[in-house]
């Protein structure tokens, strides 16, 4: 990613250079006037241009039109801006304008560039039965490089969400035929949590209670039509930043800090209640408890850093093998657990023994060279006969099978029922 900064103030340029290097680590070219900026724009392609509005050889904002003519997103920096200039800039289609007031202004610029980079992978669904309103919102979102999907009513929006679960933000109008904004949000929140999808409500109604009702129904924010460009962008930016923060907090609470697979806490939160439902419906559930063989020797011989490398790669292989359909968790130390929902112990054994064999045949690359690693595993399935069986007792049965695998010489997968 390459950024162009057009600024005649050396102080401002130095501040931006420092912040961009510190926060983004990307390539930056600097121009002090329109002529040098034009030359650079003809030679290179830029992800975004950060431009001063008034330059020594162009004090009427000509730089903005030049940048936009190259299909390059433009962020305007200026010491002052009157209402007429502001309106003209927004009509041209700039990303945003920032007044040069303090260090926070420049930090905001860098934050905005970072957001633009991430926006390229953010998919937004706009649900509105008004073609004009929908296209207007789409144009604003595309200025900030979002991927935009449209739906002309609530039912269409719901179908899109069913087929495209990677959508991160839903912007929905209130008044729509069939399924209105409130109804859509209620359906969405039954399936998508706040960690998965953010929602902004829109309406042109003058009902003062709409904002509160939208948020109470599950929306993250609400905007009254008509709205100004800056407020829309700020609300979207803050909503997505909040979504990122919620996801980060969720990850910290539920993912293992070293390997990135689910942690013990997540596993118990998911399966303590699930095991009750499985027994009621007589559904299949099998647990495989795994332990890396002689792992203490790896730490003692090569150090804990290499031990961590082994754990990370081992977890990655587990995730590649089972993470798409089953739950992989780190239970602690070198011990992991895989929950096979819907599989009996025979099918689970076949999958786990295949993983064991592949691990044995392919050494793990570390900073100290390749290490041959093996694993032992114990398997136990939910018993139809034991109505009082809990998650703890099922884990204990898998642990007994793991103990049997260790006692039998390691590098084995044992089924708990085989050793009754």
UniProtKB/TrEMBL annotation:
Cofactors (names): Mg(2+)
Gene Ontology BP, a term: cell adhesion involved in single-species biofilm formation
InterPro entries: CheY-like_superfamily, Diguanylate_Cyclase, GGDEF_dom, Nucleotide_cyclase, Rev_trsase/Diguanyl_cyclase, Sig_transdc_resp-reg_receiver
Annotated EC: 2.7.7.65
Catalysed conversion reaction: 2 GTP = 3',3'-c-di-GMP + 2 diphosphate
GO molecular function, one term: diguanylate cyclase activity
GO cellular component: plasma membrane
Pfam families recorded: GGDEF, Response_reg
Protein name: diguanylate cyclase
Keyword terms, alphabetized: Phosphoprotein
NCBIfam families: GGDEF
PANTHER family: DIGUANYLATE CYCLASE DGCM-RELATED, REGULATORY COMPONENTS OF SENSORY TRANSDUCTION SYSTEM
Domain GGDEF: 283-418
4-aspartylphosphate carried by residues: 52, 173
SUPFAM superfamilies the UniProt entry points to: CheY-like, Nucleotide cyclase
Start and end residues of each Response regulatory domain: 2-115, 123-240
